[in-house]
């Protein structure tokens, strides 16, 4: 059984180093480019942080492979193999970063044999380091994390996102899902603007569930294992097993709450991340 602890520790150290780049740019003016929609932004800092992370990892682990949000956006093929693979979102919450809304994270997941072995989500402005290794528990700044265990949907705070998809079908599905949950009722619905930090709230017990349709593997792969190792449940919105490439996810404090949300919400169609002609994450931005 391979032990990836050295990779995890290296990942944490480079996430903290890279966050210095994010924080030094946070208050500065940013040049913004558009990707898949007018709400899907990228800055030079996103691209620079991804290059810093990948070159540092490649230098230490030359045989490892990468799936990086901005590399895919620049046209690199997205292919998950059995090889050790780093799945990187250099800035999760780029809209927040551009607007100086203080929830931006570096998200790094690591897979082997296509199974997530560890995840790191570093919320830079908050200085909150979430991480988990398979079988080793979940932590926030070194303290163990546990989900709320809530079983009653009417006592839940649910986190979701109004993503970058702004076509009529996505918007009507997204808003009707929120209305259906509010009518159950749930205690509240929240959105921080970063899928990774949203989902980590479930691991802390501060939220009881998170769901999203349309995000990408790099948005949620790290936080998925953090929720699982905190005792939570992660699955597809249709109730099937979690599939990080499907662009649909429910993370919850319990299977009861996850199943209830799967009954209530609907998904809009979007191509899989690993679909060859899926151009949702890539727009040839250089
Ligand atoms: O900020 P990025 O890395 O682009 O990720 C966001 C994604 O683009 C949005 O569609 C989602 O709604 C956010 O939750 C992601 O964090
Ligand atoms: Mg993201
Ligand atoms: Mg990003």
UniProtKB/TrEMBL annotation:
Return the broad EC class: hydrolase
Q: Which UniProt keywords apply?
A: Hydrolase, Magnesium, Metal-binding
Provide the catalytic activity annotation: a myo-inositol phosphate + H2O = myo-inositol + phosphate
- Determine the domain of life of the protein's source: Eukaryota
For activity, the cofactor(s) needed are: Mg(2+)
- Record Gene3D superfamilies: 3.40.190.80, Fructose-1,6-Bisphosphatase, subunit A, domain 1
Entry EC no(s): 3.1.3.25
> Which GO-annotated molecular functions does the record name?
inositol monophosphate 1-phosphatase activity; metal ion binding
| GO terms classed as biological process | inositol biosynthetic process; phosphatidylinositol phosphate biosynthetic process; signal transduction
Q: In which pathway does it act?
A: Polyol metabolism; myo-inositol biosynthesis; myo-inositol from D-glucose 6-phosphate: step 2/2
Transmembrane found in the keyword field: no
Which residues participate in Mg(2+) binding? 69, 89, 91-92, 219
Q: Which InterPro entries match?
A: IMPase, Inositol_monoP_metal-BS, Inositol_monoPase_Li-sen, Inositol_monophosphatase-like, Inositol_monophosphatase_CS
Q: What family does the database annotate?
A: Belongs to the inositol monophosphatase superfamily.
**Protein known as:** Inositol-1-monophosphatase
């Amino acid at each position: 059984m391979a032990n990836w602890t050295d990779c995890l520790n290296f990942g944490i150290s480079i996430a903290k180093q890279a966050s210095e780049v994010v924080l030094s740019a946070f208050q500065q003016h940013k040049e913004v480019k558009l990707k898949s929609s007018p709400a899907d932004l990228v800055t030079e800092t996103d691209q620079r942080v991804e290059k810093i992370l990948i070159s540092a990892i490649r230098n230490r682990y030359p045989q490892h492979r990468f799936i990086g949000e901005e590399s895919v956006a620049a046209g690199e093929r997205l292919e998950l193999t059995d090889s050790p693979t780093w799945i990187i979102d250099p800035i999760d919450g780029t809209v927040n970063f551009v607007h100086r809304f203080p929830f931006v994270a570096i998200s790094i997941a690591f897979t082997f044999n296509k199974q997530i072995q560890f995840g790191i989500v570093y919320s830079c402005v908050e200085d909150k380091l979430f991480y988990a290794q398979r079988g080793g528990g979940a932590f926030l700044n070194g303290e163990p994390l546990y989900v709320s265990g809530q079983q009653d949907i009417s006592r839940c705070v649910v986190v979701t996102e109004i993503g970058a998809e702004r076509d009529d079908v996505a918007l009507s599905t997204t808003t009707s899902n929120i209305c259906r949950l509010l009518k159950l009722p749930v205690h509240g619905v929240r959105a921080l603007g970063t899928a990774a930090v949203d989902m980590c709230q479930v691991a802390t017990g501060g939220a009881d569930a998170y769901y999203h349709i349309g995000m990408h593997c790099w948005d949620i792969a790290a936080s998925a294992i953090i929720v699982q190792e905190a005792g939570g449940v992660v699955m597809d919105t249709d109730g099937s097993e979690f599939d990080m490439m499907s662009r649909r996810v429910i993370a919850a404090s319990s299977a009861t709450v996850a199943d209830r949300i799967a009954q209530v919400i609907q998904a809009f169609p979007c191509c899989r991340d690993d679909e060859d002609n899926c151009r949702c994450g890539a727009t040839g931005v250089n």
